[in-house]
Design a protein that fits this description.
With 77 residues, this protein is of the alpha+beta class. Helix content is 13%, strand content 25%.
Length: 77
């Protein structure tokens, strides 16, 4: 029997234009909850600076990203 093919996680949406989202940096002292980064699917623990990305067309789809993950996805465009 062949080994099972690993399932790929669905990638976070890539926004076509930077104007489509508002990005706010959260300072470490402001970060009081644990979030899951959609870029790497790892936790962002309390006390970790990160980015809050809010799509203008759908503010209820706000997500918290590691700063490095967000910068990486915006560089890849």
């Amino acid at each position: 029997m062949a080994p099972a093919t690993p399932r790929r996680k669905q990638r976070a949406p890539i926004f076509a234009e930077a104007d489509e989202v508002d990005v706010r940096h959260v300072q470490p002292y402001e970060a009081t909850k644990t979030y899951r980064c959609p870029g790497c699917d790892h936790e962002i623990p309390p006390g970790t600076g990160h980015e809050v990305v809010v799509p203008r067309a759908a503010p209820d789809r706000r997500r918290h990203w590691h700063t490095g993950c967000w910068r990486g996805i915006t560089r890849r465009g």
